[in-house]
Amino acid sequence: MISVRNAVYKYNRDTEDEVIALRGVSFDIAEGEFVALVGANGSGKSTLAKLLNALYIPDEGNVFVDGTDTASARGEDVVNIRRTVGVVFQNPDNQMVASVIEDDVAFGPENLGIPSAECRERVDWALECVGMYAHRKGTPFRLSGGQKQRIAIAGVLAMKPRVMVLDESTAMLDPRGKKEVMDVVERIRRDEGMTVVMITHFPGEAARADRVIALSGGKVATDAPAREALSDVEALRSIGLEAPLPTRIAYELGRKGVCLPGGIITPEGLAEALCAIK
Ligand code: ADP
Ligand code: MG
User: Rounded to whole angstroms, how far apart are CA atoms 180 and 200?
Assistant: First the structure.
């Protein structure tokens, strides 16, 4: 579905202020995968998100979306890439464009040239998906952070992308808002078979993914199944990330002589391991 090959991306290229945000990144994502993209601040996650839907083109290397090289895409191909990969960007306030919620959600599909009757259906469906249908006639500006984020997700969903990229979509939310968003993502993924790339710096959220790609300084530091990637406390620490809390508890217990099996990344996993102690 997505193939990134030695992608390099520079801001302010060839000037004094040049910043190399990505330094040769490679990975593939298959259809239906749920990937968590993690990394400390400034590691290149948001830049990568923009490469995935051809908002940015790599300075070196390539990004292929369903076989199309974003660098050579023109006109119709770019529209197809944007249809295939929907990105929910970091700040939902910057993404609100209309004063009525349903119009806001309709903006994306309308821009893709979807006929208006189908647009209507998609908007209703997307609002149902995120549990905001009852609010459709209201204004987005008075909503809570979690609700705004769900509207932003609905706006991308209404474009029916095959791949959904969520850039720190839960970062500004309280625990309840975080759970709302994560539950919506998991449900859509299950019901629609969508490929999901979730950018997060909450290791506990990454634990819900099948696979974790960790960036550090614009490079891939780890690309492994979630259990493996998230249970290595020291490797994560070395790239400025914390392991999930249950993993850290198991790690600290281990240092105090309570030996638990490896690969604990969820509260349930930790509880099971503790109960199994004789
Ligand atoms: P992350 O999302 O992981 O925090 P970013 O992709 O936003 O990382 O940033 C990667 C690097 O690129 C950082 O060093 C950041 O300061 C730099 N950067 C990001 N956006 C810009 C920009 N518009 N102009 C110049 N440098 C930028
Ligand atoms: Mg970012």
Answer: 15
